[in-house]
Amino acid sequence: MPRRPRMPPGRPGLPHHELEALLERSRLDPTEEPAFFRSLLDATVYIHVPVSDDSKHIRVVQFRHPDGFDAIPFFTSPQKAQFASSRAVRIVELCGHDLLSQTRGATLMLNPNDGGAVLYPEEIASLLDTGFMARVEKIEYSGLHIRPAANAPAWLEDAVRTSVQDADFVAEAYLLESNPSDRWNERPGLVIYLVVDHAFADRAARMVTAAVQPLCGHHDTVIDVMIHDVTQPLPDALVNVEMVPIYRRAEETQ
C-alpha cells in the first residue's frame, strides 16, 4: 500500500480510540452528541481514495446511499476503513476539520458499515462556522391537533424561510400551532410543517433544525418539525382553512 500522508506538524489529532469512546457515549446519551462532533473537528479520520489516481489533489471515493444520494464515507479508525476497503482504494488519514472543509457542500457518512451518522451539507456548514451541531430527536405523534399559528415569532419565520429558500426539494413551509387535544385550553406548541420530496425528508428536517435550534435559547415554547410528502394531499386541518405558506417553491417555467 502506498505510504499514507501524515498529519501536518502541530495537529496530531485526537486518537481514534478516544474518538470512538466519545461516539459510543453519544449513542447511549444524545446529550453527548455536541461534544462528539466538536471533537470530530480535531480528530484524525480516515477516508478512501482511488488507488490509481495521479491527481495532485486528493479525490475521495463516494458511494450511493440506499436513500438515493451520494455520500463520502469516512471512518473513526484505520481498522474500520480497512474493513470497508477494496483493491481499488487506499486509505488516507487527515484531520476531521480538513476533511469537512475540503469537501464542503457534499454529504458525508461516518462509519457506514456500522450504520453511522449522515452529515448533510447544512449541518457541516454549521459545525465548521459555529461549532454547533443540532440535536435531532424523532418522535412518532398520534392524535396531534394542528392549526395555523396565530402568534409565531418573526425570527422563526425568517429563519425557516432562509434555511429552505435554496433547497429545491422543499415545496412549501408552514408555521402551525400544535396541541394534543382539540380544546386548545393550554398554551400550544409551534410546528414547522414542511412539504417535501419524500426522498429528502430527513435532510429537510435536519436542515431546518440546524438553522432554528441555535436561536431557541430565549424561547420557552416547544418547536417541532413535521414532514409531509409532497405527493400526498394536505391534511384537512390545513385544507379547510385559509392557510398561506411562509414559503413556496417557485415553479419552473418552460
TrEMBL record:
Pfam families: SseB. Residues 19-125 form the SseB protein N-terminal domain. InterPro entries: SseB_N. This is SseB family protein. It comes from Pseudoxanthomonas mexicana.
